[in-house]
Design goal:
alpha+beta, about 50% helix, 22 strands, elongated, seven-stranded mixed sheet, six-stranded mixed β-barrel, 25 helices, about 800 residues
Amino acid sequence: MRALISHLRHTIRLLLKSPGFTITAILILGLGIGANTAIFSLINGVLLKPLPYPQADRLVRIYQPTQEVPRMNMAFSDYRDFRVGQHTLEDLTLILEDDFQIITGDAEPERLQGAYVTGNFFSVMGRPFLLGRPFGETEEKTAANVVVLTDVLWRKRFHGDPKVLGKNITLNGRTFEIIGITPPQANELQRIDLYIPFTLAPNYKDVSSRRSGHMFDCVGRLKDGITIEQAQADFEVINRNLVTQYPDTSAPFGIRLVPLLNSVVSDYSTTLWLLGGAVLCLLLITCANTANLLLARARERAKEIMVRAALGASRERLVIQLLSESLILALLGGGAGLLTACWGVSLIKVLDPGKITRLQAISIDGSALLFVFVVTLLTALLFGLFPALVLSRANLASALRDEGGRTGTAGRERQRSQSLLVIGQVALASVLLIGAGLLLRSFLALQSVPLGFNSHHVLVADVYLASTKYADGEKRKVFFDSLLDKVRRLPSVIDAGLNNGVPFGENFDLETLILAGRPVNDVSRLPWMVHQVVSPGYFRALEIKLLKGRFFDERDQENGESVVIINQSIAQRLFGGLDPVGQQLDDRGDLFNRPRHLTTIVGVVANVQHRDPEIQDTPFQAYFPYTQTAGGFGEYREYETLVVHTSGDPLALVPALRKAVDTIDPDLPLTNVGPYDDQIAKSFTAKRLSLIIVSLFSGVALLLASIGLYAVLSYSVSLRVREIGVRMALGAEATNILKLVTYQGLRIICVGLIIGVGAGIILGQIIGSVLYGISGTDPTALLTGTLALAVAALLACLIPAFRATRIDPISALRQ
């Protein structure tokens, strides 16, 4: 113990004698450890941390995929059949998210996100309660007007009053009794403020009487001892029976069970793991850079180490002495890294607008602290062991004769070691730069995909007529017609329209696409189309181009012919080069236990990018007028998004828009109000976040690799002062010396770049699944990353090279 304390004291004294070296090493290590800890907190909090439910690994999400839509939701009729027939789950529950308008006392009306859930929801999820109780299947069957609030809403709206149980609130014009409060963890997966019995859903009677309507989230809990593979096999047997029993409605759908956590994070898990790989490269670069600092500092300590060896210190003792210095540096770097990680986590939260599930809940918790400790120890070993082994085997006679290794074999050996470390830094930096280039090129390709509409100077706002005073379509017609009339009269408004499923929005419906008169031989092969209910003026508001026919107008009323406008993809798929105007689509309601309706095509519009191009479910889009209710394809919906095209800043219109709504219904809240460009940008959050972080890491790696190369060449020049002096005394010109030093640096750069480009090509193949519009061997990304590093490294070479040209031959020869 005394020997250890003595070692530590001696090491601390040595570090204090070299404050420049110590501070530089701590900052470099703090950057590497901090970045790794921040990304670990991100990956752990979003991908690895269990969901906040008992035995969360037993929860599964159940999909009914089709050929075109791999994550299709569950239909209510199929839910009933699966629940009765399955033998591998404890139970399964249905969830339908919806919007609610809440009124409590004198407080302002507010729009909330809620969910209709089956009576077994709370038992399946294992949801605990802070106060009260859940509702059960009995209350679900009787459609009891009861509600369970989440902790967030309880504290916000009722100030955490424990006497809230038994009180009534008004939701969508109906009175509900509060019977329970769930804990804060309830909001971790999605923003849900309240839960209501499933049988109170507005479309419950409709979906419970027909074998269609795939709109419900379905979650189940595995029985003890049952694997997800066994449950999958069990459900596949039931699904085959359903296809046999109901071929027209069940044939298009398969069955797929996935862990609930995977279903939540699947859209961005690959991207986050990519960040983990990038930050690991950065850590290796910081370790190599610190090891280079230690080797460069060896000139000052070489005599001390050799004297210790001469006095009998074993090589193991010398290695321990040198590793103790590395450990202290790593611990100090870990402290700096913890501060850097806190700042990094805050930055990540700022970069995310709330689209990545669970990201806003990440923090530097106990797991992160343990990670810092482990990484600190590993870092000390990584950057300390190699220099310690190199220094501990240096030749004593050479070190004493050459004054610390200035010109002898010990100095040459350290130089070779430093060169190897720099080659590694250059290779890793080039991998990061190539990866950043690939992500940038992919992101630009995504951004350059034609949207098919103009989102600039457009304001969007969600309007939800949830109150019972808008129970029938005629009252909704009066409201929306009045709203559009008032909005169009506002200053700076060019046009306005409505759509119940705007592109890049949260809501959209899918329907089967069938041409009237064409026989349906295989229901499972029917394509799907995005079904949208719009008002006249919507296409003009977004400047969606009309290719054939006409837009909706005053002719398209309830008593007129049922009409539809299709996009170019449907026209090409169904009609080829023929004119589709005047042809009809068939909803084949008879296949889905509902009335059958035909709609006549009156126009063809350009294709519109409805979602992120990487996840768009189908290229087919159909628009129905909200002035017609035939077959439920078009109708005055409770929910519409108002789209307003302005001549100036969309945000400047918000006060006037709210005032216009207040003149019609002062109790109606507007939500998600903002520029359309901002809403679209949120769809690319994960891509943008990964691009920013990898670019930052790449910039730091580029800087550290350049510093490492500069340090090696500067050390090399110091070793060759006499040689350079002799060369200059014999007539060598400055250009010759410049070439001599630069050539040495270029050799290191070339070797590192060759290794790095090869690794970058391999990386491109690995991350090909997250790239859009480019290949993993995109020549532009490879060339840009390589040139950026080559230019920076060349500049790092020139500084010591120019310094070498200013060496005085007389002074050099006297040394």
